[in-house]
Amino acid sequence: MPPEAPRRGDPSRVLLDHAYLLHRRDYRETSLLLELFTLRHGRIGVIAKGARRGRQGFAAVLQPFVPLLVSWSGRGELANLNHAEAAGIGVRLQHTALFCGFYLNELLMRLLPPHDPCPELFGTYRGGLETLAAGEDLETALRSFELSLLEAIGYGLQLRVEAESGEAIRPERLYSYRIDAGPVPAGDEADAVHGMTLLALHDRRFDTSQTRTEAKRLMRRIIAHHLNGRALKSRELFRSSS
Amino acid sequence: MRQAGAIAELIEALRCLPGVGPKTAQRMTLHLLQRDRDAAGRLSEALRQALEKVGLCAQCRTLTEHSLCEYCASPGRDRSLLCIVESPAEVLAISRSTGYKGLFFVLNGRLSPLDGIGPEELGLDVLEQRLKDDGVAELILATNTTVEGEATAHYLSDMARRHGIRTTRIAHGIPFGGELEYVDGATLSHAFDGRKDF
Question: Where does the Toprim domain start and stop, copy by copy (chain B) (predicted)?
Fold first, then answer.
């Protein structure tokens, strides 16, 4: 799928990588500061010089949730965006799905370290956006993405066997998930979840409302832990719609 | 050459204006001090006055010298219509070029979670209170057609629905006098999806 390898002798130049825009903000008079999630280079920050002046097609294409092909050059923290074009029709997210889209972007911005290529996560993100756009199963899309993101940054969850004994998870039993170790049989902890929920997370399939609710609660706690207590703004949008 | 003192200070201060870089700021400074000292006096007086007097309208939060802006204070406007815009500039744009006779509410921003702007930062509780009390029959969502503007519109429509208020969204599509061939793809596809009976 990569159309061209980087030009030989110029390793700081990248041609036509697949990307999604996570965030853009105005920079100086006419430029934009962009955060991109790319297929082969992970999350990167680039400057689009003069993007807000003239050349209108350029800025118009730089929107979240639109699949892009981008070329940039430069080393270090901030590269220069040389070119960007749409690589297909962007998904149009509406309403709750749009809030979910912001949530995915915010998670990537906050948890994924820059310059860390994770092509699999890129695929999950793309698939997730398509699921959101189809308005099908928002919760499954969110949970799958959260799990893949945690795996990509090295905090994957242990969902099939118990932490200490290594015994297989039993669907009907209650477990308490220890973030640094894994699931252990629960005593009377308030945040215990059923084995069924852990297995559902493992399979990314949530058939009952109980597993959905428990999975959401568990993932929220784990993500909050990795965010070091800083709240996610995009969650506030859901308050009125749910 | 690096200067110090009042001249340098003025150059630096002028650079806060949009579109003004160091060169332009220097030209402005020299012009004001050398050729037009009267204008400089008027400028500083006008700035001082404006800063002192202009604040936000208590009802719609647009810029005004009084406690209520001219729209909110006018008895002739239709109080059942409320149009939501992102900035005071849009209030001017809409009242200049449409026959809109209702009231406005200025968000002074938009929901943008990645910039840390959520419903609270936008002061949407003020708006919610107004929807509860004020006999609004239609909420017109005139936020921009950016992704953030859309999210804001959806959030507000949920809010209005809870209070049983009808919401409408301004149409977006081909600009007047535009030719399809030159319109960007996203706009065209929006326009196509939003077609009306003719």
Answer: 80-175
Nearest to B113, CA basis, from A110, A73, A127, A143: A110
Do residues B92 and B98 touch, judged by C-beta distance below 8 A?
A: no
Question: Is residue B1 a part of any domain in this protein?
Answer: no
Please tell me the least confidently modeled range out of A40-44, A118-122, A186-190, B111-115: A186-190
Which chain B residue lies closest to A236 (C-alpha atoms)?
A: B118
Q: Is residue B194 part of a domain?
A: no
Q: DSSP string spanning B11-50?
A: HHHHTTSTT--HHHHHHHHHIIIII-HHHHHHHHHHHHHH
Beta carbons of B116 and A233 less than 8 Å apart: yes
Residues B116 and B19 occupy one common structural domain: no
- Per CB-CB distance under 8 Å, the chain B contacts of A227 are none
Cα–Cα dist A129/A93, whole Å: 8
Which CATH number belongs to the domain containing residue B47 in this structure? 1.10.8.420
What is the least distance, in Å, from the CA of A185 to any CA of chain B?
37
In this complex, do B113 and A236 lie within 8 Å of one another by their Cβ atoms?
yes
For residue range B158-177, what is the model confidence (pLDDT) as tens digits?
989 888 899 999 988 888 88
A99 interaction partners in chain B (CB closer than 8 Å): 151, 154-155
* Bridging pattern class, strands A31-38 and B102-106: unpaired
Kindly provide the ipTM of the predicted complex, given to two decimals: 0.76
CB–CB contact A241 B155 (8 Å): yes
Residues of B in contact with A64 (CB under 8 A): 147
**For range A73-83, the mean pLDDT:** 82
Closest residue to A236, CB basis, from B18, B119, B146: B119
Mark whether B113 and B78 lie in a shared domain: yes
Q: What is the residue range of B136's domain?
A: 63-169
Task: Specify whether B41 is located in the same domain as B68.
Answer: no
Cα pseudo-dihedral B141, B142, B143, B146, rounded to 10:
110
Whether B119 maps to a domain, the answer reads yes
Residue A11: its pLDDT value, please? Answer: 61
Band (pLDDT 50/70/90 cuts) for residue B2 is low
